[in-house]
Amino acid sequence: MNKVKIAWYGLHLGEEPPLIPAGGIFFTGCDLRCVFCQNHQISQGQIGKVYTTEELIGIMLQLEKMGASNIDLVSPNGWFRVIKSAIIRAREAGLKIPIVWNSNGFEKLEVLREMKGLIDIYLPDFKYSDDSLAKKYSGIENYTATAINNIQEMLAQVGHLKIVKDHAVHGVIVRHLVLPNQVKNSLGVLEKLAEIDKNLHLSLMNQYLPIHQADNFSELNRQVTDEEFATAYDYLLELGFANGWVQGEKSQNHFVPDFRKEEPFRE
Known about the structure:
This protein has helices at 40-43, 53-66, 80-92, 109-114, 131-138, 143-158, 183-196, 226-239, and strands at 3-12, 22-27, 49-52, 70-74, 99-103, 121-124, 162-164, 167-177, 201-205, 243-247, 255-256. By secondary structure, it is an alpha/beta fold. α2 packs across α3 (80-92) and α7 (183-196) packs parallel to α8. It starts with a strand and ends in an 11-residue tail after the last strand.
């Protein structure tokens, strides 16, 4: 197979500050079935167009010419073999900007090892510290251990985030979306990340909206309160994390540029 399915590509401004403008490529499909997914038409539907490997290479080169600071591969897991070939050949054709692997954190470890040396920046989610929630809300088993192992592998491959002239060039950023009525889950995620490495760059997200199938779960059928989000944020600081970003206003992809509301941290 030498084809992928892409729902959208173009310059994307909804990522963390050192990743924009991102050259976003949103692949169709996801191995999670999150009931609150904000991109469910793409991740759980069939929206998209089929492209060959050659066309994917052309998209990457086009995005670089458009001014993208990176190639942002969104939900790439299911298409990794074609993506791997496309990256190699795009580099041979002159692609210079970093490659971002933007994932749900649940890929197979073998996939990450296949991509070693080709990915510059890993941008995984860490959604759950409680596997019963992963089963209930995303329909998967063994999420927590899988995500921990994957983040450790990502960190071993590319190290901590490095920013040059306001743009990320390599490293790891771990995202966590705070859910309503699930503060304990968020605190558990932060604790497990602290056990991995407190120098990780984190992105604490406050953009949850009760959409898709969330209204089938009474505990998810509202936005996160300021108190809930503040509890997670305060615990993040208490654990000693100092690198990363906190998302601002609800329902907007706006990131306050760091945990202390000053200039973005650098290594």
